[in-house]
Amino acid sequence: MSLPIRPRIDGLEPYPHGGIDHLELERLGIPPESVIDFSVNSNPFGPLLAVTQALAEVSIDRYPDSEATELRRALAAKLGVDTASILVGSGSIELLRLVALTYLGKGDLVIIPQPTFGEYEVACRLVGARLLKPWTEREADFRMKTSDLVKLIKTNLPRAIFLGNPNNPTGQYLSREEVADIVEAAAESLVVIDEAYINFVNDAWSSLGLIKRGNVVLLRSMTKDYALSGLRLGYVIAQKSIISDLRRVQPPWSVNVVAQKAGLLAIKEDGYLENCRAKLREARSFLVTELVSLGLSPLPSQANFFLVEVGNAKQFRQTLLERRILVRDCASFGLPEYIRLAVRTLPECQQLITAIKESGVLDRCRLKC
Q1: Interacting residues of 107 by C-beta distance below 8 A, sequence separation 6+
Q2: Residue ending a domain, choose from 243, 266, 289
Q3: Is the separation of the CB atoms in 89 and 250 below 8 Å?
Q4: Mean pLDDT for all residues in the chain
Q5: Is 344 inside any structural domain?
Q6: What are the two backbone dihedrals, phi and then psi, of residue 262, each rounded to the nearest 5 degrees?
Q7: Which end is more exposed in the chain, N or C (fewer Cβ atoms within 10 Å of the end residue's Cβ)?
Q8: Are residues 30 and 83 in the same domain?
Q9: What is each CA distance from 187 to 102, 105, 173, 240, in whole angstroms?
């Protein structure tokens, strides 16, 4: 007997992500450890040595602190906010779904500007919300026109708005004034601002004051900047009442003891991120210059990744994967002619450029465009 599922789940497909597909590599006969992965937007320099050393000492025979108290206190002290304004979760995706489960329901209207991270839509569809997905323009490098979004909000009065800042996959970063205009227009809506890549932005402005408005939820990741992707770790910053609501929905022991310990150690190392950012700036400059010399046009981005129009992105990805280099095919973002490249170490960026030149991939992909 086949059990029927809820109508809102029928037809819902898992959202494709970057990262290594182990079954795909098995079919190709490529060892996963041999692949240089430009498809994930994480810090390529790896976690702190102190983190990896300390993890061997973590006791895993006891349940973790369900509220991640020590990590929340450390984050609160670092950010200058109240501990009660922070909720730690098992990565941004868990936190997105907590927000949707807590505040959205069947028929609620949600605005999600495109192109953007597909998990916003998945979280909303799981609870039966209706979606309005305005597209930004290629001619504007996919940068959102704030006045258009403000008008859309005032006309449609949505229950919620989801924004990536900086946005994935475009890397576009809205200014303090632009975000303030959006939040002001959405005074009766929940505004979820995903800042997973905020630590890769040069001269980023502080959004923490926005939580005082009572309708703003800030999402942040510790897996991207601190290279802890395998542990899944993120947090929400919001008004105390929102955090209290989310905690009631969050499963107990959501964040494992290893992740909590790693996060606690990582945020104590003040110089780590700045050192990584400096290296990434150098590698990025090289990568952009070389791509332009090949006739490509990387789009402007304020994050540690950017879009590149290559013609046939699927073919481009496949050709490079055969050379053990993985890039992100952006078809799932609605951009089948684009790849997304995350900046990696300088030697790895040099290997990418060499692979593009030697493979002849640009000529083949442009012919199939």
Answers
A1: 128, 129, 130
A2: 266
A3: yes
A4: 92
A5: yes
A6: -65, -45
A7: N
A8: no
A9: 18, 19, 21, 18
